[in-house]
C-alpha cells in the first residue's frame, strides 16, 4: 500500500486560458517533501509523494473549515507537539498570503535544545539548498527556507527514523518545528477618551520613552512623525522601509504622533515619546512569523520600553513561536507588548495570536461611547479558557496620520489631507501603547508587569464580561494616579471537572501592591456573572476579606474563591470582577472559571493483529457541534492506549493500527466507529484481529494499481466529516466497522481507484453510497459487461508532446472524488473503462503536458474539460475527441461576458478546441481593453477570463470590449493568435449575461492539426450566443493564407463556407463578424487555424 500521484476535480464550469504558473491550481510542498495540489478555493485536488516516499500511506481528514493531508510517518510528531499541525493543514497553507510567503521555498522555524543543538543546526543547514534566514535567539531557534525540491532533505535532517524506515521522533537537538506562518495587520475622538490630556497636564507626554511599532513601516516624512522615528529597519519581504499600506503610519501616529499637520487636533497619546519603526508586514499588510520575531528582538535590542503589535493570526491551543517570544522577552527584558486582540467578531474564543500570549497586554476595541465594537475579538483563550483580552481602548472611526497615496488613503480617502479615519483593534492597541509610555515616563523603573498591572487596574468598566472587555477601557489619567496595582492582572481558575456536586472550592490569591508612600485601605467586592450573562449564584465567587490594608511599598493578599458546586445545572464559563476601592483609587481584576459541561473520560484501546497492545496506532475523534476550537481531537497513544476527556456529545472515532510498527508500508488496519455517543465514561476498542482484507477484482487480473482512495462521510445536522486514505492499491489494507449499525446520522462509504491495463487503457472505478455500517473487509468484482468503454482521441499539432486524461468520479454522497492520470504520447487514444453502478457520473479532463519542473513534476501547457459530468451505460462504447482545431472563442450558457453591479467581467475561453471543449493553453501575451462611449475605460494583461473585472459607471452606455491572446507555436502551432471584440449597451444591474456572440469554424481536422493540402472543402460556420439562429442580422466571413496580411471575403451558404485547404506546411486563418438584430456586434480573427499536409 502506497500513495499515488492523484488528482481531484477543479471547480465545475471554470474556464481558463492556462498559464504554467496559474491553472486555477497551486502546488504545495509539505515538509515531508510530498506535494499537494489545491484549487482556487484551497481544496486539495492532487497528491504526489516525494521520491523514496512512495510507500508511505497518507491519511486525509476534513470538515467544512479545514482539510488535512497527513503522511503516516508525521502523525505521531504532530500529536506529540513536536511538529506544527499547520504544516499539513492544506486549507491554511493554500491561503493567498501563505502561498505568497512560501513562493521562494518551504519556510520553517526550527527550535533547538540540549547539548546536540549545534550538531542539529549544522545538519539542518546542510540539508540540500536550505538557507538560514534569521537567528532567533529568544527561542533558541532560526528561520530556514528550503527549496521545495530539497524538502525531503530537510525532513531527513529534522527527524529520526527506525531501521525499517518509519520516522517517529525529531532528530537529536531538535526541539520543535513550526511553520513560519503569516500574520496580518489587525485593521477593520479617542485620545481624550482615555484621559491623555489630563496626563499631559500632569507633565507626562512620553518623554524619554521608546515605543516600537512593528507594522507596515512608518512615513517619517509626515509632519506628525517628523523627528519622532529614531531608528527603522525592514524585516518584511518588501524592498524597503517605506509604508505603502498606511497602516503602520496610522498606528504610530496614534501612539506618538505630534499632530503638527493638524495644529495638534490629531495628536497621539504620547507625543514626546520616540519611535522605533520595524517594518515586519509587507506592502500588502502581511508578514511571516520569523520576520516579526526578528523585529521583536531588534526592538528590544534598541531599548524599546513598549512594543506595539497591531497584527495577528488565528490562535491554536499550542504555543506558537510568537506567543513564546512575547512571554520570554517580557519576563527576561521587562518589555511590555501591547497586542491587538483581533477583528474576528463577537464569537467566543476568537482572540488571535500573539495577543493570546500570557504576558501580552491584549487590546479589544470600543467606540467613542465605550460601546464594544462588533468586530472586536472575544475570549476566552483557546485551549485553557484564560481571560483575554485584558483591556479595551478606542478603535472605531479613529482619525490619524496616513501617507498620501498609500493603500488605505486610496481606499478610504484622506479627510482631511494627510489623515484617514479607520477602525480596528489595530487602532485601539496604540492607544494602550501610548498610555503605557506615559506611565513609563512617570515610573522609569517599572517593567512590563507593573505597567500592565496599572493599566488593567485603572480601567473604566463597561456593561460587558471579562471575555469581551478584559477589565475595561483604559483610563490613563487614572493610571498615572494609580499607586495600587493587582497581581496577577486577571485570575484564571482553569477547568473544574463535571460533575460539580463533589467539587472542592478553589482559591487563588490576589496580591495588591502599594507603590505609594502611604498605607491604603481597600474595600473589596466580588461580582460574578454566569454563562448567560446573569448574576452568578450567591457564594459562587467569594473573597477572604472585604477590607484589607496595603502598607506603603509593600503588598497585601486576599483569597478569591470559586465554588463551582453552585450554579445548578448551568455549566460553562463563569466570570467575575474583583473591585478594590480606597484612597481615591479603584483597582479592577478580572477572573474566570470553566465549570466544565457534562464530560467524560474516553479510553481508546488498540490491539494489533498479534493480540497485543498495538505498538504503532493512531486515533482521531471528531466532535459534532463543537462551538470553538478544533473539532478534531488527537489523543496520544501510549502502549496501545489513548485517553482523553471530552464533552458529552456525538463523535466519530477513526483509528489505524499498522501491522509492522517499524514500517508503515507493510499494511494497515483501518477501523472506525462512525457514531459514538458519549454519555458516560466510555471505552472504545479497535481490535485489528477482527479486520478483514479489502480486495478489488478487475477483468484484467494483471492491471496495475495507480490509485486507491477509500473514504467515508458522516453527517448530522448539516455538519459533515470525511476520513479517507490515498494509496496505490488496496493490498495490505484491512477494514473494520466497530459498534452497532448507525442511527441518527447519515453514513456513506466510497471506494474509488484507477488501475492501468496496457500502455493506453485504464479502469476507473467509483462505487458507494449510503450505508448503515462501514464495511468490514471489502471484496468487489467488476466484469467487462458492468463497465462503459470510452475512447478519447487526444490531439496535438506540436511534435513530441505528451498528454493525459483524468476521469473524476462524482457520487451523490461524495461530491467530487480523487482521481489520477497516466501520461502518454500525443496524438493518441486513451481507452477508459468506467464503472457505472451507483449512478456515478464522470468528468473527463485533458492535460497537454510540458517540460518537467525542478521537482520532476510535469508543467501544464493546455487543459480542456470534455463537457459536463455524465453518466455512462454499462456495456456501451463512447467516442470523444479533445485538443484538436479549430481553436477559438466559445460563448454558451456557461461562458460569456457578465455585468454585475458596477463591474463587467468575463468567463469566456478564447481557445476552446474544435469540439467546443472549454479550456485553454499556456499563453505568451494577452491584452483586454474596455471602451465606454468610445473612450478607453481600462485595460489589463489577461484574456477575458475574469481575472480582473472592469469597474464601470452605473449609467447606461455603449461599450466595446476587445481582447487578444497569443501563444507559442511550440505549445501548439494552431490558433497562435486570436483577436475578438464585442459591442453592446449596458447599465447597472444585478448579475446578467451580456448580449455577446461568437462565430465558430468547425472543419474536419486531424488530431495532428492538419488536412490534405490544396483540397477544396466545406467548413461549417455557426453563430453562438445572442446572435444565434433567427437573431442573426448579418454575418460576414473572410479567410487568409498569409497570416492575416490580406483577407478574402467568403459568403456563408447554408451554414458553410467553401475554401481551398492551404498548401503543405502552410496555414489558413479565419475571420468573422456577426451582428444581431439589436445591433450588438461580435468579431473574431483566428490566425493559423490549421495546416495543410
From TrEMBL:
The keyword Protease applies. One of its GO terms (molecular function) is serine-type endopeptidase activity. Pfam families: Peptidase_S8. CDD domains: Peptidases_S8_subtilisin_Vpr-like. Residues 1-15 have a biased composition (Low complexity). The keyword Mitochondrion does not apply. Residues 1-21 are annotated as: Disordered. One of its GO terms (biological process) is proteolysis. Residues 206-472 form the Peptidase S8/S53 domain. InterPro entries: Peptidase_S8/S53_dom, Peptidase_S8/S53_dom_sf, Peptidase_S8_His-AS, Peptidase_S8_Ser-AS, Peptidase_S8_subtilisin-like, Peptidase_S8_subtilisin-rel, Peptidase_S8A_DPH-A, S8_Vpr-like. Keywords: Hydrolase, Protease, Serine protease. The active site is at residues 215, 247, 426. Belongs to the peptidase S8 family. This is S8 family serine peptidase. It comes from Streptomyces globisporus.
